[in-house]
Structures are given as C-alpha cells and as structure tokens.
Amino acid sequence: MEVVGYIESVDLPQLELFGLDAKIDTGADSCSIHCDDMVIEGNTVTFLLHDEVHDAYHGKKITLPIAKKSKVKSSNGKSQERIFIEVPIKLGCKTYTAEISLSNRENMKYPMLIGRRFMSHRYLVDVSHKYITKKEK
Q1: The pTM is what?
Q2: What pLDDT, in 10s, does the model give residues 36-85?
Q3: pLDDT tens digits for 21-45?
Q4: How far is CA 52 from CA 55, 56, 130, in A?
Q5: Residues 6+ apart with CB under 8 A from 104
Q6: CATH top-level class of 2-136
Q7: String of b and e for 12-32 (b: at least 16 CB within 10 Å)?
Q8: Which of 1, 78, 91, 129 is the most buried (most CB within 10 A)?
C-alpha cells in the first residue's frame, strides 16, 4: 500500500485539473469536490470549475453523466442530496476511478476531500505529514 499525507496533490485528468490540493478525510465516506453553477439536464450535469483561491481551477464548464444521486451528511451534521460523477483520480503513483459528489466548498480550505471509500485497501494515511507523494516524485 502507498503511504499518503493528510493533504495531497491530486490530478483529475477528465476534469482537466492537475495539482489540486485535496484533504484526505478518513472521517468522510465519499469524495467531494468544489464546483459552482450546477445544472442538471436529464442524466447529465453541467458545472463550473471556478475558484479564485485555488490555482488548479481553470474556470471551464464541464458536462458529465450523473453517476448517482445520494444523501450525504456533511461535517455540520446536516444531510443533503448530492449529485455524484465518476472520474479517475490520480493520487501518488496510482489512478483509480471514484464517485465524487459535487458541492459548494468555497468556505473550505481545500477544494477536494478524498474519503475513506476511495482510500480503503489502497492507501495508508500518515497524519503527521502532508504532500508525501509530491516529495517522492
């Protein structure tokens, strides 16, 4: 298993996002990413990847199939239905496909959370370090 820190840089090539800061959150079940202006049309979702704070964001609109809709309990304890997309995430040396919920994370320090379902049986988290995979490249 690959060891990662509690903060890592990830690539989401299908979203044209590279070097995106992500918090590894073993308390979260699923992955989540910040987006704006979500529009659902049939079985697809269009969203804007815009964030003035995070350099990896490029301001492009992306349209993808909806993988699923599911209730997610956020860190404040409130549940909300979220749209999930399915895209590859490159973390460290490996790339795996993951379901990622689309949400507004503008008030959060990191634009992406990597949850335990993605991490399980693939990675170990060293909570005393960050950006371990960047150092190993």
Answers
A1: 0.88
A2: 899 999 999 999 987 777 677 888 899 999 999 988 877 677 888 999 99
A3: 999 998 889 999 999 899 999 999 9
A4: 7, 10, 23
A5: 34, 35, 36
A6: mainly beta
A7: beebebeebbbbbbeebebbb
A8: 91
